[in-house]
Input
Amino acid sequence: MFNLKNEFYLKIILIISFTALIFAYFVEYILGHQPCNLCIIERIPYGISIILIAIIFIIKKNQKFLTLLLILTFTFSFTISIYHYGIEQGFFEESTACNARNFEETITKEDLLKELSKKTISCKDVTFKILGLSLTSINIVISLLFIITFIKIFIKYEKNK
Output
């Protein structure tokens, strides 16, 4: 049975996920702040949550399993955000994930020179803040709140067996 309180929380998280993605693209394409690779990776859990929550509402089956996937998704988000925040604060060194580019296809010498001339965005550079907080630090808080909420929803599913 689908709990109305769980449905309310899922709708709020769905709205926040949509808003977070729209805002990230707004900051990138309208305001012109280029994201680093970790910033782009941090968007993925929001897209996954939109898909999983939509499946919960449409199919109305396997809600407990899908909620568990949402917990794992935002645990990943939280972990990546903590790591990214550590790089921003100088606690960790940048990894190859920060500077990786897609060189899978065959490229010419001219393409390589053009690619090297582009300014790469470092994971330690914070180019956009809200109330003095980087988007990564805000993502840490949101991810943690989502994890707690999804755990509460999961526990309610367990009690309603």
About this structure: The chain has seven helices and two strands. Residues 4-92+124-159 form one domain. Residues 1 and 160 are 8 Å apart (CA to CA).
